[in-house]
């Protein structure tokens, strides 16, 4: 029997590594098990988010957005330059450097906080035991008073489009292209599909997005989603809703995709195809047979509101449990669980978790949509403000999009905030804080916002809830 710990965390992604650091900060003897290896065969902490998800995709999105600004917008701003071109290989090398710096940074944080890093594949073999298999196949069993499963998720594969070399790829493969494909197909108009499609659309790919659902981004407020769809199409992305993929075939280093839409059977040829139809929990093999940790029919670990499993002392967090598959949700769950293990009182507000799609302009939201509010029995009132009426947006050459505040007509409590616009991912924190503290729309309206800022759009939207917006014509009767 190897060392005994107070806490062992399986997985060093944004849920696992945060849980491990928090537990160690609270005085608990903590270990974190990770099996992810980089291209050099060295263990890399950070999980999907840092290695092949949030961070590398944002590096590519920011770079390509700056490229488009320089190419298309600088002249309007009075900036005179020569022809602008993109070195894709250099862009990819920068992305890899950022990933390496951040994953190495987590290793440094482990050392600074006294977390023991264990390399290998972890498996819960008992309510107080974790077996780790290293890369040579050697198995070691560790004991722990508490175990946190933070195994994450993996991309979903679908039978019609099996992965094929570098032609049909998942989101990981799409982050490794070394040149811009002329014709790019993307299956799935969700967060990942829209972000990766945007990257290569900006670099000149002819991008076609095939989405099986008839509704575009149903989790986003309808008016904001409709506006976002219009903006993406204006940028050149061909987004086809109600397009159900039925098959694919590789011919002469091209991918022929068959799908069915309202007009019947269709066929289209691409140079590359990215499959982004969602992610599934990575729980297979993480729980040994005989350990009574319950999994649901989709493979998610069953937990309560505080991430306790059916086995005392065993917790699960992040993508392998219910709720949105978001890095910040996983991190907050990790902190909550570490606090609980240490004997503190802790909980999470799952109604105030923000989501962001890092297209340009950015799309961000928190809470429920207007339609969801009505379906839940609320009488709602809403306020919307366009960035076209914002002085800072005009100065920034970023007048596309709008902000919307949804409130309960009876109590004025904020139920949701949805924004499409420059820096929406930063501005949404205002909505999160408002909802976390149970704020009313009037609370936002009475808050003094700095001028000129993009955030003033949220202020004006809150004012507009009761027809009091200053910088746009009000349709509602003032009170």
TrEMBL record:
Annotated keywords: Cytoplasm, Disulfide bond, FAD, Flavoprotein, NAD, Oxidoreductase, Redox-active center
EC number: 1.8.1.4
Cell compartment(s), UniProt: Cytoplasm
A GO term, aspect molecular function: dihydrolipoyl dehydrogenase (NADH) activity
Reactions listed under catalytic activity: N(6)-[(R)-dihydrolipoyl]-L-lysyl-[protein] + NAD(+) = N(6)-[(R)-lipoyl]-L-lysyl-[protein] + NADH + H(+)
Taxonomic superkingdom: Bacteria
Cofactor comment: Binds 1 FAD per subunit.
Entry keyword annotation includes NAD: yes
The FAD/NAD(P)-binding domain, residue ranges: 5-334
PROSITE patterns assigned to the protein according to its UniProt record, in alphabetical order: PYRIDINE_REDOX_1
Pyridine nucleotide-disulphide oxidoreductase dimerisation domain sequence ranges: 353-462
Enzyme class, broadest EC rank: oxidoreductase
Cofactor needs: FAD
Note: The active site is a redox-active disulfide bond.
Family under the similarity heading: Belongs to the class-I pyridine nucleotide-disulfide oxidoreductase family.
Name of protein: Dihydrolipoyl dehydrogenase
Biological source species: Halomonas piscis
Lineage summary: Bacteria, Pseudomonadati, Pseudomonadota, Gammaproteobacteria, Oceanospirillales
